[in-house]
Design brief:
It is a single chain. This protein is α/β, with parallel strands linked by helices. Helices cover 29% and strands 24% of the residues. The protein has 24 helices and 37 strands. The strands form seven sheets. The chain has an eight-stranded parallel β-barrel with strand order 1-2-3-4-5-6-7-10, surrounded by six helices. Strands 25-26-27-28-29-30-31-37 form an eight-stranded parallel barrel, surrounded by four helices. The model has no long low-confidence stretch (mean pLDDT 94).
Length: 793
């Protein structure tokens, strides 16, 4: 068990100034929010420049912190704007930035060396190796993937000593954060750029089962860990993060208040027990059919899902016991108040909403006027979606002003200037007033002076202690005391705020070190990446294919993997391994155990897909070629340089799938892979569609999900690693775009084989050879060109 004598931070979201004030009022130690650029919640309220400057000062008045999200992937034309965007906030005293893009990390480190960097959950840090390289890049804190267990989190903490910031309440994504392309490819709104459309909250159904009750198989319940806080904190978590920058001040304030309450309880010597009323409050503020404890103590499961509907489901207050003419009757399971909103769900799309006309005690019979009576039946559940007196209480609480406790001393002596001294921790101010004279009649009394000074009104200060040092029979006008108090409070404000100010200094200009990319003069090479080995013979027999990328998940399951590598080498091809998209402790232990195979001479290089693998390979001194796959992001030149700097060897980039042709050209890559064809995963998840809808049979398979427009999405259950990949129903194909090779001059064009049949594989190989010759090529299958011609938002 870790010591309780350490800082534990309650970190609250702030989508607006009202939310920020609600968080501080209710006990947040820090808030995180977005500005007008680069934040991963572009549709939250967010703060303009003036509001953000005000917000920084506001939190500092109360000794709290403000973290700014700049955790989007930044295009080449956007990254130069980052220093100018951050400069005024840095100078104002911004406490930290939350970052995803490695190019942004590099720029911030160079321009703002005193600014604390937090590695965003969008970095998909899943283990000690990824955390180590984040630390090497200058991060002080890591927000690991939400899917990690408590043991994995503790291992990162023990290994790196970094601050651990973990989500404890709020919405959960279906996909590993930072790896989702669903919103981007379907609607052009990238989750990697703060514009997620929330596609996992939309209805999908397994092909052939459209009328299923579980119409939302990708929707998770909200996270609530209030009952597990001691265990979470004992495993090394330093900051408890509440999700919800899209939520309002009622939600932010009330959730923050309850987590503050139980952190304080944890830190006390009292037994830790959560009151049932607090759990009900959290349910009534927002829930999606109950809560889940998340991934801390379970890998995945149906109980974590909210598959019937994805919206707020309120608190259960009863079920219909009798239907009468135009009326419904039920026994109240909770006190019901006048003005409460009640809801009866007919199906995922249709509902009945009622308002309670009066008060009903728990256990009493309730009779209400009904609606849509023909669609109701006995036994249907009734939920309260708005608790009227609770909302009134919250709203009244939000009107209160947070007060800072001060220690004060007023010194008033004859023929001397009055002096008011204020202290708040290390902050100290002294204010001098006029000379005090003897009273002609009755002099001031200490109690009167104390009473007047303690009338702090609408200020954000109150006196915890006030010492009155008063001489005898002195005339002390009330106006003098009020002026002293006003000036002292103003000076205390400035003392608190100005100590955070910084001066920006232009970084020393460095010679721009050229990238270690090398222009290859030989003709463009064809690479075929294969998720399975069914058509390996066809690919190896094609003389124009020079590189074959094998799936590690597929190769490791073969009885004789060495024979497969030998076959490829005998055919005169270069062989590369595609490492897992997600590499947690289980995957990394497997990679380490089979290091001899991975590092064998028959394997010419590795496709790296995350920081965990990248860092491990650097630690192992890997000297062969590394290829950064498209989900190992290099959206700008600075990110590419950062990969080169960290590795010390040549990294061959893969053009990012979310950039259009013009944006790819701006990267000026001299030696890169261009993904020309293939079904691409839109999501990779620890959850399992098959397990949640049909049950687990431990058999790898392909399933088809359909959306409300009847579009297909292919779900691959990768049982060997216990992950799900959800693929776009249409393959990406940009091979028929005129001039694409001349404009982007890739050294390698890549064709990705997943679920194609033999005829399609041969068609793809023929198309590859035509494109290599500079000819246009078409495919018979329906396809998408992705973002090649459209800008991702």
């Amino acid at each position: 068990m870790r010591t309780k004598n350490r800082p534990i931070e309650v970190l609250a979201p702030a989508g607006s100034m009202e939310c920020l004030k609600a968080a501080i009022l209710n006990g947040a130690d820090a808030v995180y929010l977005g500005g007008e650029m680069f934040g991963a919640r572009a549709y939250a309220g967010n703060f303009n420049k003036e509001e953000l400057l005000e917000a920084i000062d506001y939190v500092h008045l109360y000794g709290k912190k403000l973290f700014l999200t700049v955790n989007t992937l930044m295009k080449e034309e956007e990254l130069p704007l980052l220093p100018g965007f951050l400069k005024p906030f840095y100078e104002q005293g911004l406490d930290a930035v939350i970052v995803q893009d490695l190019g942004a990390v590099s720029v911030i480190r160079k321009h703002f060396p005193k600014l604390e960097i937090h590695a965003s959950t969008q970095m998909t840090i899943t283990g000690v190796h990824g955390a180590r390289i984040a630390k090497k890049m200058g991060a002080k804190r890591v927000v690991p993937a939400r899917e990690l267990s408590l043991e994995e989190i503790q291992e990162i903490k023990d290994d790196t000593g970094l601050d651990m910031e973990c989500f404890v309440h709020g919405a959960l994504c279906y996909c590993y954060s930072g790896q989702c392309f669903m919103s981007s490819m379907l609607g052009g709104r990238s989750g990697n750029r703060g514009r997620c459309a929330g596609t996992c909250r939309l209805p999908f159904y397994l092909d052939g089962t459209k009328n299923t009750k579980n119409a939302y198989p990708l929707s998770l319940k909200d996270l609530c860990t209030i009952e597990h806080l001691p265990e979470i904190l004992d495993h090394g978590v330093d900051s408890l993060k509440i999700e919800g920058r899209m939520k309002g001040p009622r939600y932010v304030g009330e959730v923050t208040r309850i987590y503050r309450k139980y952190v304080d309880l944890y830190l006390s010597e009292k037994p830790y027990k959560v009151e049932s009323e607090d759990l009900k409050i959290l349910m009534e503020v927002f829930n999606r059919g109950g809560f889940t404890g998340g991934y801390y103590k379970e890998y995945h499961g149906k109980d974590m899902m909210s598959m019937k509907r994805p919206d707020h489901q309120g608190l259960y207050v009863g079920k219909i016991s009798k239907l009468m003419k135009g009326k419904i009757s039920f026994t109240a399971q909770e006190d019901i108040h006048k003005g409460d909103a009640l809801q009866i769900r007919i199906n995922s799309e249709e509902k009945v909403e009622l308002t309670s006309p009066s008060e009903f005690k728990a256990g009493s019979k309730v009779v209400l006027n009904g609606q849509k009576m023909k669609k109701l039946h006995e036994g249907m559940e009734i939920k309260r979606t708005l608790n009227h007196p609770m909302i009134e209480r919250i709203d009244e609480g939000l009107k209160q002003k947070k007060k800072e406790n001060l220690k004060g001393k007023i010194i008033i002596q004859k023929d001397q200037c009055a002096k008011l001294i204020l202290k708040d921790g290390e902050d100290h101010v002294e204010v001098i007033g006029p000379v005090i004279e003897e009273a002609k009649k009755n002099g001031a009394m200490p109690a009167d002076i104390e009473k007047l000074l303690k009338k702090t009104g609408q200020t954000h200060y109150t006196f915890e202690e006030l010492e009155v040092d008063l001489g005898e029979n002195l005339f002390v006008p009330g106006s003098v005391l009020k002026k002293l108090r006003k000036e002292a409070f103003a000076q205390m404000d400035q003392t608190k705020i100005l100590k955070y100010r910084r001066t920006y200094e232009d970084p020393v200009k460095e010679n721009d070190v050229a990238s270690s990319q090398e222009q290859e003069d030989s003709k463009i090479q064809i690479a075929v990446s294969m998720e399975n080995l069914e058509y390996l013979d066809i690919v190896t027999e094609d003389r124009e294919v020079m590189k074959i990328y094998l799936s590690w998940m597929e190769l490791k399951q073969q009885e004789d993997p060495q024979s497969i590598l030998n076959k490829i080498k005998t055919a005169g091809k270069q062989c590369y391994l595609m490492l897992p998209q997600i590499a947690r402790k289980r995957q990394m232990e497997e990679l380490k155990a089979k290091k001899a195979l991975i590092f064998t001479n028959e394997i010419d290089g590795l496709l790296v897909r995350n920081l965990e693998e990248f860092s491990w390979l650097i630690e192992e001194g890997y000297q062969k070629e590394m290829i950064a796959d498209y989900m190992f992001y290099g959206y700008n030149k600075e990110a590419v340089k950062e990969y080169q700097r960290l590795s010390g060897i040549q990294i061959r980039m893969t053009y990012p799938s979310e950039l259009n042709k013009k944006e790819m050209e701006q990267l000026e890559l001299l030696n890169a892979d261009l993904f020309l064809y293939g079904y691409q995963p839109l999501m990779v998840s620890a959850q399992c569609v098959k397990n949640n809808l049909r049950g687990c049979d431990k058999t790898p398979s392909w399933l088809t999900l359909k959306d409300r427009y009847n579009a297909n999405f292919f779900v691959h259950t990768s049982c060997c690693d216990c992950i799900n990949e959800i693929y776009n129903g249409k393959p990406l194909w940009v091979g028929n775009e005129a001039g694409i090779l001349n404009d982007l001059h890739p050294s390698v064009i890549r064709f990705h084989i997943t679920r194609e049949n033999e005829v399609q594989v041969k068609e793809i190989l023929n198309a590859a050879k035509s494109i290599q010759k500079g000819e246009r090529a078409s495919l018979a299958t329906e396809y998408t060109t992705g973002h090649l011609k459209r800008e991702v938002l």
